[in-house]
Amino acid sequence: MAFLKYLLLYLLVIEGANHAVRFVLNQVPEVRGVEEGLAQASRWIGYLERIMILTMILAGAYNAVGFVFAGKAIARFQSREQTEYYLLGTFASFAWAVALGYLGNAWI
């Protein structure tokens, strides 16, 4: 039974977050026109970061979550639109993964 709960959490952190992050990004008109390549790369980075964050929280390694965030902080962008897109997506993605991690710890 625990396996199914973990599976559900990982599916929600990957697929459910896509809809949540996309909703957040669509609320800001200035970031809607971001290049398709950037959007695709951001999506795959988001998958990986949410999987890492969920795993760390479920394992009780809360401090390690900061390393994922710090790793993303080294990225540099040339335009304001790219930076806003990146930050909005990152914060929405992190919030989703952290919430599911805490929910998972309480549930499993």
Structural write-up:
By secondary structure, the protein is mostly helical. The chain has one domain (2-107). The chain is built from 4 helices and no strands. The protein has helices at 2-26, 36-58, 65-73, 80-107. The protein is globular, with a radius of gyration of 14 Å. The model has no long low-confidence stretch (mean pLDDT 85).
Query: Rg to the nearest angstrom?
Result: 14 Å
Q: Say how many strands there are.
A: 0
**Which secondary-structure class do the elements indicate?**
mainly alpha
**In angstroms, what separates the terminal alpha carbons?**
9 Å
Helical run tally: 4
Low-confidence stretches: none
Quaternary organisation: single chain
Q: How would a textbook summarize the main sheet?
A: none
Helix proportion range: over 70%
Shape: globular
Strand content: under 5%
Element pattern in H and E:
HHHH
Q: What's the number of structural domains?
A: 1
Task: Estimate the mean pLDDT confidence.
Answer: 85
